[in-house]
Design a protein that fits this description.
alpha+beta, Nuclear Transport Factor 2, Chain: A, 36% strand
Amino acid sequence: MKLTHVHAFTAAMQRKDLDAMLSHMSDDVRLQTPLVSEPFQGKASIRPVVEALLAVVDSFEFLELMEGPKHVSEFFKVTVGSLALDGMDYWRLDEEGLIQEMTVLWRPLPAILAVQNRLTMMDETRTDGVNPRS
């Protein structure tokens, strides 16, 4: 399995470089996040979601990459202000190694809810009419 795009994606995530992150995803990428129940489909719908998240997250620290026959996942730490979250991204890759499906898992629940509240407050103060969770 080619992991070039996965490594480049995680490096871009640590830099909080949204355009670089999206360049390592397939056009029809599917994102499932713990912040909303419905998945996001396609780069256009994912962009505002990830943009909002990058605005509230201070740092990502990737710790361990795990590879199976049809998937790759990575365990990481997320810092949002004084909050620390454990996370895991589960990726399914296409033939070229681009991220085709991404499932984000976070813990603990109180920290997830605090991040969700920060995103909600950010939504309420946006003036561009874009709601990253719709």
